Structures are given as structure tokens and as C-alpha cells.
Amino acid sequence: MKGVFTALINSFDEKGNINEQGLREIVRYNIDVSQVDGLYVNGSTGENFMLSPEEKKKVFEIVKDEAGEEVELIAQVGALNIFEAKELAAYATDLGYGALSAVTPFYYKFDFEEIKDYYNSILEDVDNQMLIYSIPALTGVNMDLKQFGELFENEKITGVKFTAPDFFLLERLRHAYPEKLIFSGFDEMLLPASVLGIDGAIGSTFNVNGRKAKDILKAVHSGDLNEARKLQKESNDLITAILGNGLYQTIKEVLKDKGVDAGYCRQPMKKPNDEQVSGAKEISRTFLN
Ligand code: NGF
């Protein structure tokens, strides 16, 4: 469980139904072309929070069936309905997912005891490891070093997907918990995070830019910071262009330009307009040739 993991994009048809063939093609592209080390399935990028429990299970099944043992798989099972989260955790574990992850519970202002109870409950009947999915910008849940430490007391919680620009906390976590896995979640900050000793990264743009992300990690590990800076700058030119054109829509349109049936986003996310489609084609040909 180390290295570059793609936060897997999903494929929906015109009507918003899961496009199985498209999802399989996305998995293949990530393994064969982006050459990532693993896939993070049903995360934010997979439009998880707009799927029904049955659809989430279907996505877990399709991805496992297509990827087999070729790469590591992490199943994001977090849900506000604790029974759903537990059911998904058992389901993904039975399918052979090597790790679970669960977003911190959001919307209601849960206190820390409630958050801790959520993780311990998801894990009580399941024989698998768990990465906490911390993304304060989207959940509003900010945990401090001590609180992470309390969650880590559960031995099944083996790490965190840390999607925050707080490098002070990241360094403190690395120092305090050298045995836990830390994955960074912002692709544009991969270089500074890797200098601080993360074990890997999980990100949306790796669907199309996974090889360069791996090269950034390699450059940092070999001590070649000039090369790492050059690669991060190139990646950030791409990420700036993607964010400016609509994040998920653009990743899907870039994949389509590469011959992958990445489909559309699900409502209420919009379909891309003509300008976004041509913008994505230009991004694909300018940055990803
Ligand atoms: O899309 C977001 C929203 N963040 C992703 C990633 O952290 C999400 C990040 O790659 C994720 O891992 C998941 O799908 O569960 C950004 O898209 C990227 O750094 C561009 O800003 O914050």
C-alpha cells in the first residue's frame, strides 16, 4: 500500500446510469497507460455521494473484476448511514479489496467521540485495514494531532488519506506515527508532501497524469529536487488548466480524447458545454502527448 493511487473517475451514460464498459476502460487506462500503483474506488472523484448503495457495490465489483490482482485496491465506504458503511466495508472486503477508507462523517456537526465511534463501528466486524479519509475543505471536519492519535489506537486504522494544505500537521503526523501510512490528497502539492515523507498519494488527476506523479516521487526519493520541481511545475500547469475548465468533466473529456469511454458526470453535476469539450481536447494534446 504505497505509491501513486488514482482516485478513480466513474463513467455514466447520457441518462446518468453507470456505464460498465466505460468504467472498465478507465480502469485499464489507469493500469496500462497511467501505470499507477493502485486505485481508490468510490471516492469524491468517483462521484460516490451521488450513488445508491447498490450502485456502489456494482462499482466495487466491476473494478475488482477488471483490475484483478494487477494493482492495489482501496474501497471508500464512508457514508452517513452507518449501516450502509458497515455493509459496504464487508462487501468490499469479501471482494478482496486490500484496504478500506471512510470519509469523516459530515453535514451534521459530529463531535470527536461520535467520529471515533463511527470508525470503530465500521471496523468492528470486518477483517481489513482502514485509511481515514480527511478532507476538511469538503466535510468541515478538522482533526488535530491528538485526535488522529486517538483514532490510530484502533490497530485496524493503518493510516490516513490527508487531503489538506496543512504541512505543519502533516509533518507532526509523520513524526508522531512513523508506522502509519500517510497518503497526500492534493496532487498540486505532491512534491512538498513527499519531501515530508508521505507513503504515497491519492488523486483525481492521476487518471491522466499518473506516470508523472510517479516520477515526482522517484525524483524526491533519489534526492533530485531540481527534477522534482520541474515535474511538479509541469503537473501544475496541467492541473491549473484542468481546474480552469471544470475538474471532473475535463478529466472525462481528456480520457475520451485518449479513446476511453469515460462518459459524463451524474446530475446535479453538469454535462460539459462545447467550450469545455474543446478546452479539454486542447489540454489533452498540449500537456498529455
Ligand atoms: O477532487 C478533490 C476535491 N480532491 C482530489 C482528491 O483529493 C480526491 C484531488 O486529487 C480524492 O482523492 C477522491 O476522489 O476521493 C484534487 O482533485 C486535485 O488535487 C486537484 O485540486 O478536493
TrEMBL record:
Its EC number(s): 4.1.3.3
Pfam families according to UniProt: DHDPS
Signal sequence region: none
Molecular-function annotations in GO: lyase activity
Catalysis: reaction(s): aceneuramate = aldehydo-N-acetyl-D-mannosamine + pyruvate
UniProt KW keywords: Carbohydrate metabolism, Cytoplasm, Lyase, Schiff base
Active site: Y133 (proton donor), K161 (schiff-base intermediate with substrate)
Places the protein is found: Cytoplasm
Pathway connected to this protein: Amino-sugar metabolism; N-acetylneuraminate degradation; D-fructose 6-phosphate from N-acetylneuraminate: step 1/5
Lineage: superkingdom: Bacteria
Binding site for aceneuramate: S44, T45, T163, G185, D187, E188, S204
Cross-referenced CDD domains: NAL
Family note: Belongs to the DapA family. NanA subfamily.
Binding partners and assembly: Homotetramer.
Physiological role: Catalyzes the reversible aldol cleavage of N-acetylneuraminic acid (sialic acid; Neu5Ac) to form pyruvate and N-acetylmannosamine (ManNAc) via a Schiff base intermediate.
Entry protein name: N-acetylneuraminate lyase
Organism of provenance: Salimicrobium salexigens
Organism classification: Bacteria, Bacillati, Bacillota, Bacilli, Bacillales
Gene: nanA
